[in-house]
Specification:
Length: 221
């Protein structure tokens, strides 16, 4: 094994959960997985916000039900400080009041604690690659949120907007979309902004969810 090259490919994970047994369990399991390392952990939102930025994690596993600063606020703060971080919510909360705000705060994925250890690992790997994972148990909440009271079916897109929408649904970055379509990054950003405006959405996560729920790309299992 070439130490330097292998280390560069490792996914740096930060775990935030107020239950010590949960943190220990996640650490014990994830550290057995090739290409994944735990770089830190926190028992509260405040601790996560204070510690995670200096550790430069690729993925943060975030519980929502935390003492003091909740996981929602911590997610919003971390995403603002670390634009490249991917937050995977790992929680037992399944209500609309928790699911939708978490995604709006910048969380990429939403996984329930009832998921298997293998599913959590898959969510971490998917997040590191920029792909969202949504637990089937919260699908209805997301569909209701992105469709809104009157729905958004019937919105028309240009051919290029359709190409960009499919790419966003696959988790591709602006640079990857630009390279794939042979256009500039600024042009991609313009198309993304246009799509957000037409659909009344706020960010790429909501756009990706909308695309998944309207048949533009398959949802990750």
């Amino acid at each position: 094994m070439e130490g330097g090259t292998a280390k560069e490919r490792r996914i740096r994970v930060f775990v935030c959960d107020d239950h010590d047994v949960v943190r220990r369990g996640l650490r014990a399991y994830l550290e057995t997985e090739p290409g994944i390392e735990i770089v830190g952990e926190a028992a509260s939102g405040e601790e996560a916000v204070a510690r995670a930025p200096s550790l430069h994690p690729d993925v943060v596993l975030m519980d929502l039900l935390l003492p003091g600063m909740g996981g929602l606020e911590a997610t919003r703060d971390l995403v603002a400080r670390l634009p490249d971080v991917r937050v995977v919510v790992l929680t037992s909360a399944v209500t609309d009041e928790k699911v939708v705000p978490a995604l709006e705060a910048g969380a990429l994925s939403y996984v329930l604690k009832s998921a298997s250890a293998a599913q959590v690992v898959d969510a971490v790997r998917a997040a590191a690659a920029g792909r969202a994972t949504l637990d089937p148990g919260i699908a209805n909440s997301v569909v209701r949120a992105v469709r809104g009271p009157g729905g958004r079916d019937g919105v028309s897109f240009t051919l290029r907007e359709r190409d960009v929408l499919r790419a966003v649904a696959r988790g591709m970055s602006n640079q990857e979309i630009a390279d794939a379509l042979g256009i500039g990054v600024k042009t991609v950003k313009t198309h993304v902004s246009s799509l957000l405006g037409k659909l009344g959405l706020y960010d790429r996560t909501q756009l990706a969810v909308w695309a998944h729920t309207h048949g533009w790309a398959p949802v990750d299992p």
